[in-house]
Amino acid sequence: MDAIIDIILNKYQIFLLILVRSTGLFVITPIFSRKNIPNILKIGLAFFMSLIIFSVIDYDAEVFNDLSMVLLIIKEFAVGLIIGFISYVFFTSMYIAGQIIDMQIGFGMVNVLDPQHNVQLPITGNFYYILAALIFLTTNGHHLLIRALVDSYSLIPIGSFAFSNDLTTQMISIFGQVFVIGFKIASPIIATIFLANVLLGILAKTMPQMNVFVVGMPFKVAVGLLVLIFTIPIFSVILQHLFESMFNEIDIFMKIISKG
Predict the structure, then answer these.
(1) In the prediction, which pLDDT does 117 show?
(2) Residue 102 domain-assigned?
């Protein structure tokens, strides 16, 4: 331990850059960035993770001036931030699916407060997000995020990050994938509610004395919640596809930067 501390004191600039990249991951990634996790825990985890990475990666012992050091700090923070941002964007597909479902079953006006971002979120989307986070943790997805951070040093050495047109194209593609995944999650309930609306329309024509607006709302809520319960196994399969796509996009991001 003392030997590692001596090396850090002699090459503190390299350690600082590694710490900055690790911190960028904790700023926005879905699991580690939550406000209910104490900041001291995030700082300590980022520090010890940087300590481990510092002892296992290869780096050039170079002394940087003030201007180049500031530029390198921005680059390293951007690398960790983008890796965390990609994972965050894929998790937002839960909110997209939840918003679509809530509008269909009548929960469009019911929102819950997200303490992490201080915004109102759809109640079904929040349920899907929490469920996705639990499955992500139980399948050790957070370990794979940390592994992606470690692997980034072999593909993106310190100071080699640069924006490119390919990176912009990839981000646009990711946003498109997120909307598709959100629609896939919501599609069983959309189809069921569409059939329920058709049924209510037929009842309104055959039984004019029945107040369809009074009967229709609780009927759609009950049908929507029932379908939501029965589609949980399908949801886990979609989550597996989502996690694979997320880590695949992180890998593509690192390859794009390494080629640039």
Answers:
(1) 57
(2) no
- Tell me how long the chain is: 260
In a domain, 134, yes or no: yes
Backbone angles phi, psi at 112, to 5 degrees: -125, 155
Total structural domains in the chain? 1
Say if 101 falls within a structural domain: no
- What is the C-alpha separation between 171 and 249, in angstroms, rounded? 9
| Model confidence pLDDT, tens digit, residues 241-254 | 889 999 999 998 98
pTM of the model: 0.83
Phi, then psi, of 11 in degrees rounded to 5: -130, 50
Query: If we measure between CA atoms, which residue out of 189, 178, 180 comes closest to residue 93?
Result: 178
**7-19 residue pLDDT tens:** 665 577 788 888 8
Q: Residue 28's CB: how many other CB atoms inside 10 A?
A: 18
What is each CA distance from 219 to 200, 223, 224, in whole angstroms? 9, 6, 8
Phi and psi at 111, nearest 5°, equal -125, 160
